[in-house]
Amino acid sequence: MKEHFINESYEKKINELINQMTLEEKIGQLIQIVPSLFGAFDETIAKLINGEISYDEFQKLDRNYHEDKIRGGVLGSMGGVTGAETSNRLQKIAVEESRLGIPLIFGLDVIHGYKTIFPIPLAEACSWDLEWMEKTAEIAAKEAAAAGIHWTFAPMVDISRDPRWGRVAEGSGEDTYLSSEIATARVKGFQGEDLTDAQRILACAKHFIGYGGAVGGRDYNTVDMSPQTLHEVYLPPFEAATNAGVGTFMSAFNDLNGVPCTASRYILTYLLRDKLGFNGFVVSDANSIAECVEHGYSRDRKEASRKALLAGLDMDMSQGTYLQDLPEQVENGDIPEASLDEAVRRVLRMKFNLGLFDNPYRTNQEIEKKSLLAPEHVQAAREMAKRSIVLLKNEHNTLPLKKKLNKVAVIGPLADNQRELLGTWAVTGDPNDVTTVLSGIEGAVHADTEVAYSKGCDVSDKEETDIDTALKVASDSDVIIAVVGENSDMSGEASSRMELDLPGRQEELLKALHQTGKPLVVVLINGRPLTIPWVAAHADAIVEAWQLGIQSGNAIADVLFGDYNPSGKLAATFPYSVGQVPIYYNHPRTGRPASEVKFTSKYIDGPHEPLYPFGFGLSYTTFEYGNLNLSSSEFTKNEKAIISVDVTNSGNQSGEEIVQLYIADVIASRVRPVKELRGFKKIMLQPGECKSVKFELEMQDLGFYNEEMDYVIEPGLFKLYVGPNSKEGLEGEFNIIKQ
Ligand code: GLC
Description:
By secondary structure, the chain is an alpha/beta fold. Among the domains are: 375-580, Rossmann fold (3-Layer(aba) Sandwich), CATH 3.40.50; 623-736, Sandwich (Immunoglobulin-like), CATH 2.60.40. The protein has 24 helices and 26 strands. 54% of the residues are buried. It binds alpha-D-glucopyranose. Alpha-D-glucopyranose is lined by residues 109, 153, 206, 285-286, 493.
């Protein structure tokens, strides 16, 4: 594995610096203060999250940027500080006024864009388009770097199999293979090939580890899983990020099997450094060191700080827990100074690799002004948003709509809304930059087409409803486009839901609209899979549009009116009911698989199949699969299979298909999943065109961890599936044979 970031001249300079540093200066490098978190959840940050104030207004508030600590050389990083002017001003104090002139590193949650806000990560994942996801990360890096940011707390690579968990919005869904591929793309997009490039930023693989496996889908809750599940399902995306050269990791809030990740030597040293070979540094999640006390894992913050540092937690993101709690413990020998030096070394290593010592002022206000919302960035937002849309239903070819109609009724609480379309973690986005669904539709239709709008009801407020007016608007229309879903603060951090239905009275609105007998197109604006069985049964068409960022309205209109043929495929299963959760496609086999037979693994009060499976998504055209071929029917474990399949566009318009390859290990020394994604290819086909799609499948990749936690590739029969989603496709088989 490539040895990232170890550069002889840097290491020499780091040693020289460490030898000059006082104890306080060393600890200072391990501190990240987030001014905006001051008072943690005070009313100001609530106003920001609720969109009552913009991030720029938020920044202008009288915030103590800890200039005295910077000048004293006892602050190494700041979070949540933006703007070339502010960044350069603070950096100047660090570089030109502190004793050793060690530059600051500025971090921020640039999760899906900085000013040009792209679709939420779960939406992007549904594009399965690695090139575009790398591109949007690259643009996010460009804008963030121009605004004085050096480091993003992204990509979030947590696997989530429970849509009650609000942070499913921030990741790449339920599948390990797809999430690993996307993690690689995003790390490369943020970091590029040369971190000293002033248009690139350091990435951060988070949250290490198992965060998405919280019991009950409740954020911050306990995580308990076997070492096999940890290694086979949750670890690979972090391994992929490491192999892609990610420069930092963030520890997760949760405990894993009883030990808080933030203070777990098994996680932060054995897994991360010994097993994955990671050379960068680890930052805690906000205040997660101090929270080891609440976990009952440490009697006080001092003990928490000591355990965290000795576990391999390098930088403390909080209000300075390390600053208060480390000095005395180093002085009295409870913490070996060598352990402290190792943490300092890792932080300085990444500052050198970023080029901050040679070029501490990577940007200026002119660069910033030119970069933010550059036209090519905004166009990229529209391209990515189009590709993130998943067509879930399209009865009688309701879609695409004609642009020339008498009247289009646009109904629903999210039709003329800007803020909610930014989605979660868009802290530096501006709702004013969002094209609403209504505007997108108005911009797409023929000039003679009337577009009438009515809100109908609120997203969550059961009182605020005006369904009668909505019905009047809809009564003489040719088609109803109903735009419903979730507010952006219903997913993301600390936003777990116990129900997955459409909130408020939205379904009541849809039922009333359905009564009109007009064609009903439902556009979903949401941050997680929803349970929408009534909509699935009664709408004529369903467009899963997630929260697509600033170009939401144009991208949705592009799909609704046929300027773009939807190609997205679900990266997360849509349950039929929340009672089915956790429900995911690659579940282990059981001795009594669900069937209509009584004594089998299912529910007696509802279906055992999900509403929409992983990998599912329709197109305006159709695709046929044929001629599945394997290069052999047997392979030794060091060989690879070449698989080919013919895919034909059997419809009358061009379209992209995401061809998916799954395998199943039929007999093994541990129960294996019913199937697992092991490859995908996105291809464009003209009407009538046929392409042969090829996959290479390394037998080495078909192993698993046995009871003794050895990674084994066992001889035996494997099934192979190639098709449009995790439920359908052509079937083949092969054997792995002994050498
Ligand atoms: C939050 C999140 C983490 C984020 C950090 C800084 O609590 O858990 O993902 O990067 O704090 O905002």
